Amino acid sequence: MKKYLVTGGAGYVGSVVAAHLLEAGHEVTVLDDLSTGHREGVPAGATLIDGRIQDAARHLDGSFDAVLHFAASSQVGESVVNPSKYWENNVGGTLELLTAMRAAGVRRLVFSSTAATYGEPADGQLTETSVTAPTNPYGASKLAVDHMIAGECAAHGLAAVSLRYFNVAGAYGPYGERHDPESHLIPLVLQVALGQRGSISVFGDDYPTPDGTCVRDYIHVADLAQAHLAALETAAPGEHLICNLGNGSGFSVREVIETVRKVTGHPVPEVIAPRRPGDPAVLVASAATARDRLGWTPTRSDLAGIVSDAWEFARRRAAGDPAGA
Nearest 5 degrees, angle CA 69-CA 73-CA 75? Predict the structure, then answer.
């Protein structure tokens, strides 16, 4: 059994990873200020510390084997109008976390990074050597943290893995998406099926794709969690490993909408809207590095299965079930 600190462990991905760590027999402490996370999202068996990552020095000691770092401000639009919040929380907070880890002798880190570090690349399959050119302060803050981690590894021997997620979706039992505001396609389409919104907007239907709508890479949140456990075992002193996490293939906006119709049995009206600036036609990840270095391969890549898990969670939440509250 090992002992892990999970920052942001009351959020969507953090809660699922914390649950997987507990199921693997480890001791888990969650550090989360609950500003966007949810107390009920902390898995039973984990210890919750209500606090910010800037408070990490007060809670970290040599008994921890590693830190899994999810705590961050993550709304792209908000980052444009309030960039200082993103520099303070994502960059400044992580700097304090790294300092606290060094002081406590905790020398292993898995960082929740993002495909937003790549910005608006040309269509195609992204690898870790693709150009990083973020177009908003959120993506820029995550890229800055990646650079910061690389320096910590080189100078102080930290063992670190950054995992750059693409479109995380699905649910894992009582742990699912509950963002406010919601900006992700699958939960938005499910809100239409639930009658919580009248229609779903399709931003452009004239792209050079089979059905004219954008194609994106979706990864099940439980597959994502397994990659984090693998990263803990793979991290090597003095190395900063970066891995994209995705399925390596994509689904179009219309495929997602049609899959929701089939899974839920509900009509989902769609409204064609103008293209959004900077939306590439196709954006998928090469997961070759994760496969080769982490020994990780996604096993839940069927879109209907991803949607079904998300639908079950959304229905429970809409019905007021505590497991999906």
Answer: 130
